[in-house]
Design goal:
The chain is mostly helical. Helix content is about 60%, strand content about 5%.
Length: about 600
């Protein structure tokens, strides 16, 4: 009896489970069938499939008409065709279209801007570490070589590296003055240490430095080092500012708002097919391109200036790999300064005689016996040198050559960024078959002519009403900013000194000599040029309800990486067949279980 009772309970449980499977299969079959039927479109399908699709997107299906009507009441979607859209639904479509376009465009531009942010931080970290490492290397080498005498005069060398770093960070300093001051101060200190029997006042030491060009106590080291340091640091600092400007231009144009005409065109492109039951029909390529070229016409106005900017930034990167290599100047600077000191030591007697002849015989130093006994006579012969000192060959785990190669590879696809933006927005989103796509009114070929790029050519755009006479103040401001940095890049490329400028919120140019102090400034959203600090980016972007593919560059490798990143694409025919196969499988399972149950 227990066995029979247990068997009866098992059968009841199996029946309840089978009933649940039956309900599930019914829901799946109903949903799949409705969506597949809706894919075909047509007046006879009614609006139930549209309501179902609308619900699947989390939207209020009460805005969908209960039955199809003519679209005479609509403002954007087709008026002559049958429709399931009400006025309220069309208003919702416009709101969704604005959100979709703003979000998708922001996501694509933010990705490119983040690339600039990352490269700027990486480059800035490398250059800063390079200068710091060179300062540490000199300190270690000179401490071992010259001992206590170096410790007593280490401030001279510390100030040199401090000034070099301030210059790189944007301080208003003249590099030639920085290096001249360093060698003049070094000469005064060395002259006193090598002539300890004499007393020198400030006036006499000033006379010593006035004969420096004639005496050349350090040989040709100061002139050669000055040329190398100027080229390396001017190029490095200008390249850094070039990266920052590119970042800020991208940040500024990302705030361009879309026009209402553009919003209507996007609604017609993406959402109006839903009104006629085409929930999965892709737009025709020409239709999408005309819409995007009209919506993004202002961005194209940056193309020529931006392309020139990328070209000169790339050229300067090539120079930084070669003759303007800051790493090849800064890394061995301790050896070059040591060579200068050696030269002075070897020429000390000759230099002292000429100084005494030109500036007069100095008075002997007066000192008591204790001072004489405790005084140290400086010997400039190195005691150890650089041998045995383990030094890293690169800063921040990389080298300037590798950095510049990486930058040039990343910059190349961005040369036509604004020109290719409409194409990248439509790529992988439009239909591949010209006759099986949404043309704005039905499922058919798009017959309108494709317009050219730029605002002026949008006069003949059949999809977007563009005010061709209106000029964007924001775009003109960014073009001016790019033009100024292009001139700086050109000067740095030729080895000439570069003046730095700051810009206020209105884009007014304000000169500040050879460089503004950006050291403590960050990167904000007020349109100002910022050189320091990491840019704060939004990490809470909602996934779009409907989205274009991310930016795809002209390079095959970049295109392949972008092909599967963050894209929502309608199901293909293979996906439909997969669904049909799933239905057959579930149906077979159902009947199989029924047979088992009857046998029990």
């Amino acid at each position: 009896m227990r066995f029979i009772a247990g068997k009866s309970t098992t059968i009841d449980n199996l029946r309840r489970w089978l009933w649940s499977i039956e309900v599930l299969i019914f829901v799946v079959i109903t949903t799949r069938t409705s969506l597949i039927e809706a894919e075909k479109g047509g007046e006879n399908n009614g609006c139930s499939a549209v309501k179902l699709a609308w619900n699947s997107k989390g939207l209020d299906s009460s805005h969908v008409a209960s039955s199809t009507t003519k679209g005479e009441h609509l403002q954007v979607c087709a008026k002559t065709s049958w429709t399931c859209c009400t006025v309220e639904m069309e208003a919702k479509l416009l709101l969704l279209s604005r959100q979709d376009l703003n979000r998708t465009l922001s996501n694509q531009i933010t990705e490119i801007r983040q690339n600039f942010v990352t490269q700027t931080i990486k480059y800035d970290g490398f250059c800063s570490e390079l200068i710091d490492k060179a300062s540490r290397d000199l300190h270690q080498m000179f401490l071992k070589t010259y001992g206590v005498i170096y410790e007593q005069n280490s401030k001279i060398f510390a100030e040199l590296f401090q000034n070099l770093k301030l210059y790189y960070n944007g301080r208003d300093l003249n590099l030639q003055d920085v290096l001249d001051s360093f060698f003049e101060t070094l000469m005064q200190h060395m002259f006193q240490l090598l002539n300890t029997n004499y007393a020198f006042n400030a006036q006499y030491l000033q006379c010593v430095t006035e004969h420096m060009d004639e005496l050349k106590p350090f040989g040709d080291v100061p002139s050669k080092l000055s040329t190398q340091v100027k080229r390396g640091f001017i190029g490095a600092r200008t390249f850094h500012q070039g990266l920052v400007v590119g970042r800020e231009v991208i940040n500024a144009v990302s705030k361009l708002d879309v026009t209402q005409s553009c919003v209507k065109a996007v609604a017609k492109l993406l959402w109006c097919p839903h009104c006629q039951g085409f929930m999965r029909l892709k737009p025709c390529q020409g239709f999408c391109l005309n819409v995007m070229k009209g919506c993004l016409a202002e961005y194209y106005e940056l193309h020529e200036t931006w392309s020139t900017y990328i070209e000169w930034l790339t050229k300067l990167a090539e120079r930084l790999e070669g003759p303007f290599n800051i790493e090849s100047v800064v890394d061995p600077i301790d050896v070059k300064i040591s060579d200068a000191i050696m030269n002075f030591q070897e020429k000390n007697e000759e230099v002292s005689k000429k100084v005494f002849l030109g500036c007069g015989q100095p008075s002997l130093a007066t000192r008591n016996k204790r001072q004489t006994d405790d005084d140290m006579t400086f010997d400039w012969k190195p005691s150890g040198g650089r041998q045995g000192a383990a030094r890293p060959t690169t800063a921040a785990g990389t080298s300037i050559d590798r950095l510049m190669q990486e930058f040039r590879e990343k910059l190349a696809p961005l040369k036509d960024l604004w020109k290719e933006l409409p194409h990248s927005m439509c790529q992988n989103f439009t239909a591949t078959e010209e006759t099986k796509c949404w043309n704005g009114s039905n499922k058919n070929r798009y017959t309108q002519q494709l317009v050219d790029d730029g605002i002026a050519n949008q006069r003949s755009n059949p999809e977007v009403d563009v005010d061709v006479g209106r000029s964007s103040a924001l775009i003109e401001q960014q073009k001016l900013l790019l033009t100024m940095i292009i001139e700086k890049l050109k000067k740095a490329f030729s080895g000439h000194d570069v003046n730095y400028y700051d810009h206020d919120a209105d884009g007014v140019q304000q000169s500040s000599g050879s460089g503004d102090d950006f050291e403590n400034s960050g990167s904000g959203d007020d349109g100002k040029v910022r050189v320091r600090g990491e840019v704060e980016l939004s990490s809470s972007l909602r996934p779009p309800i409907k989205t274009f593919p991310p930016y795809v560059s002209s390079h095959p490798q970049d295109r392949e990486r972008s092909r599967t990143r963050g894209r929502i694409t309608p199901p293909t025919s293979a996906a439909v067949w997969s669904s049909v196969f799933e239905l057959f499988w579930l149906t077979g399972l159902y009947f199989g279980l029924m047979i088992v149950l009857r046998n029990v």
